[in-house]
Write a structure and sequence with these properties.
The chain has 66 residues and is mainly alpha-helical. It has one domain. It is 71% helix and 0% strand. The chain contains two helices and no strands. The radius of gyration is 16 Å and the shape is elongated.
Length: 66
Amino acid sequence: MKHEFKLPAVEEILFLLLGILAEKEGIIKKDSTWINYVWDRISEMDEQITEVAIRGAQLLEEEATK
């Protein structure tokens, strides 16, 4: 049985991680519009990832009780 989850594209996640790294290294100022966009997108993805994690746990439990 194949399960498909909708997650943000890997490219977008890498892009956001690069933004965080650039902020931490001082390449981008903390008050820049771009870094604010990065943190906004991460907040949105956090919700989606939580939903996927919950569904994944449910599927594992279903498989374990078969």
